[in-house]
Amino acid sequence: MNAQQKDLFLANRACIKQLQPLPAHILAFERDWIDSTIQKTRTANTPSDLAGLRKQLAELVELERSVMPPSAAYVGDHMTREEFKILVQEFALDGLTEAQVFYHLMPRLSLAAQMPMLRMMIDEFGSGNLKRSHTTLYIDLLNELQMPTDLAFYIDVNAAAGFSFPNMFCWLTMRADDPSYFAGVITYFETVVPFFFECYTSICSRLQIKAHTYYSEHVHIDVFHAIEGQRLLKAMDATGDLDPVKAWEGICMGREITNAAFDAAVDKARRQEFFDKEREIERAL
Fold first, then answer.
1. Has residue 277 got a pLDDT over 70?
2. DSSP code at position 112
3. I want to staple 113 with a disulfide (CB 3.0 to 4.6 A). Which of 222, 235, 248, 250 is the partner?
C-alpha cells in the first residue's frame, strides 16, 4: 500500500506540474482505494436535500466535538518533541503543497460557487503575502524543528497514510465525477479543524514551539472557512449542481482517510520513539 500511495502521489505531482495523465495501473489503484473507502464508510441514512445534508453534518460535528480521540489527547498532553517531528513529517506532503490543487476545482464550479472557494483560497495563500501563506508557515515550523524543507525528502520517508491525505484532495478536485464530493469534504474539514487542531496548539505551547502559527492560524481562520463551505453548498444547490448523497459520501470518506492518516502518524511517532529508546538501551549494555 505504501508504494502504491507513493506512486499515486508522484503521478499526481506530474499531472499538476507537467499535465501528464496518470498511468492506467495507478488510476486503477486510485479507483479501487476511493471506491472501497466510500463503500466502507457508507451510512444507512443519506440526505435527500441540502437541509438534510446540513443536519447530518451538524450531528456528526457535535459527536466529534464531544469526544477527543486518544491519539489527539496523546499529542496534546504527552507527545515528546522527537515524536512531534515525526507527526509533522507525516503531514509535510500536504503542508508543503497546501491548497495548490484547489485551482483545478474552480472551472468545475458555477461562478457563484467559485466565490466562497476563492475566499478560502485567498486565506490559504496568505492574501497574496508569501510570508503568511500556509505553506510558508509550515516551512517556518520545519525550520524551527531543524527538519528539511524539501518535498523530495518527505516523499522518501513518509508512510502510506502521509500520502493518502494529499492524494485524496487530488482525486476530489481533478477526477471525482462530481464536485459535490469535494464540497462535502471541505465543509466538514473546515468545521472540525478549529477544535481538532487544539491538540496541535497545546503541544506547541507545552514544548514552547514558536512557529505555532500554522496551527493557531487554522484554529482561527477555519471558523470562517466553515461558513464559506456552507455557502459553497448553498451556491451549488441553487444551480442544481449539488448532489447531497455524494456530498455526504465525501464527508464520510474524507473523515475516514483524515482520521486514519492522523492516527497512523501518531502511532508511527510513538513506535519510532520506542525503537530509539530500545537502541539506546542496547548500546548501553
1. no
2. H
3. 235
What is the arithmetic mean of pLDDT over 143-154? 97
Q: Residue 182 has which C-alpha cell?
A: 469535494
Q: Which helix (H) or strand (E) holds 225?
A: helix 213-238
Position 216 pLDDT exceeds 80: yes
Could you identify the residue written with the cell 443519506?
A: 46
Of residues 92, 91, 103, 132, the one with CA closest to residue 217: 132
The yes-or-no verdict on residue 283 having pLDDT over 70 is no
Q: Which three cell numbers stand for residue 161?
A: 497514510
Q: Which three cell numbers stand for residue 101?
A: 490543487
Q: What is the pTM of this model?
A: 0.93
CA torsion angle for 238, 240, 246, 250 (degrees, to 10)?
A: -40
Dist CA 39 CA 270 (whole Å): 31
* Cell 446540513 belongs to residue: 54
Distance, in Å, from the CA atom of 20 to the CA atom of 26, rounded to the nearest integer, reads: 13
Contact 5, 32 (CB under 8 A): no
CA–CA separation, 122 vs 159, rounded Å?
Answer: 30
What is residue 151's predicted lDDT score, i.e. its pLDDT? 97
Count CB-CB contacts under 10 A for residue 118: 13
How far is 255 from 69, CA to CA, in rounded Å? 13
Cα distance between residue 39 and residue 32, in whole Å? 10
